[in-house]
């Protein structure tokens, strides 16, 4: 989750279609000052996708404003990059970590990608589709339901978003 938070805050080092280099201490390095951040207008949401072996496959940051693409949410970008890297759409065994509760689009995409585990940070009562407004990820009518862990490092993740909207 600290890596996802780092992506959300710095918005850095995400080469187009590629995978960001992983600094040795990436998990320890979350900038304390959320104001000293990204010169981007996008809501700071970061996602990291890990393979079945725990290795980082791809990252994504919300780039809706940057790209003018309504679907450029952190989760979707991480999914696309991981699928491209693996050469397949089916990402079973993989884990997606994201700083904010996924919306309906992202939750739907995660189900379609057969992601095995979803870990998210802050709850999003207005649009969340992993338990807040809907629970697309665990809807029993769907044929695939990932394991879901919500509210991880919630205070830290929520603080980054609050700082952005302040
Ligand atoms: Zn989304």
UniProtKB/TrEMBL annotation:
Q: Which domain of life is it from?
A: Bacteria
**Which CDD domains does this chain map to?**
nucleoside_deaminase
The EC category is: hydrolase
The cofactor named in the record is: Zn(2+)
- Location of the active site: 75
**Binding-site list for Zn(2+):** 73, 103, 106
Keyword field: Hydrolase, Metal-binding, tRNA processing, Zinc
Biological process (GO), any one? tRNA wobble adenosine to inosine editing
Q: Which SUPFAM superfamilies match?
A: Cytidine deaminase-like (SSF53927)
- PANTHER family given in the database record: CYTOSINE DEAMINASE FAMILY MEMBER, TRNA-SPECIFIC ADENOSINE DEAMINASE
Q: What is this protein called?
A: tRNA-specific adenosine deaminase
């Amino acid at each position: 989750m600290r890596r996802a938070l780092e992506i959300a805050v710095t918005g850095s080092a995400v080469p187009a279609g590629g995978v960001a280099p992983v600094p040795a201490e990436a998990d320890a390095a979350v900038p304390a000052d959320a104001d000293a951040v990204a010169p981007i207008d996008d809501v700071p949401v970061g996602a990291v996708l890990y393979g079945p072996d725990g290795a980082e496959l791809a990252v994504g940051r919300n780039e809706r404003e940057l790209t003018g693409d309504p679907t450029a949410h952190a989760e979707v970008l991480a999914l696309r990059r991981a699928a491209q890297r693996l050469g397949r759409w089916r990402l079973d065994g993989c884990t997606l970590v994201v700083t904010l509760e996924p919306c309906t689009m992202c939750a739907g995409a995660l189900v379609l990608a057969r992601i095995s585990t979803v870990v998210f940070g802050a709850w999003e009562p207005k649009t969340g589709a992993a338990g807040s407004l809907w629970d697309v990820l665990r809807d029993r009518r769907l044929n695939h339901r990932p394991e879901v862990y919500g509210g991880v490092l919630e205070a830290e993740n929520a603080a980054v978003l609050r700082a952005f909207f302040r």
